[in-house]
Amino acid sequence: xxxxxxxxxxxxxxxxxxxxxxxxxxxxxxxxxxxxxxxxxxxxxxxxxxxxxxxxxxxxxxxxxxxxxxxxxxxxxxxxxxxxxxxxxxxxxxxxxxxxxxxxxxxxxxxx
Length: 112
Fold this sequence. Notes:
Blueprint: H1 4-17, H2 24-40, H3 48-57, H4 77-84
């Protein structure tokens, strides 16, 4: 099964980035930010390491999500928002830098 936190974050990302006016540059920046949030935060802020443990290390496929599916009310909109917020100034990798969020959009890029 998948992580309840991951599902809520993914659902918001799909809803937020589906409109056509959202540029590929903006999506790339946000995907990078989400990847950093998921892979560099300890449990219970991210279930990434629990998923790795259950599938690759112990291979028992018995994830112990925190919070679990029976505790969805604990995954508030504020907790989901943290994944989308800018990375901390002292984050070891920092934000993904593009010349502009529209640099990759079809209107501004050079033809291939």
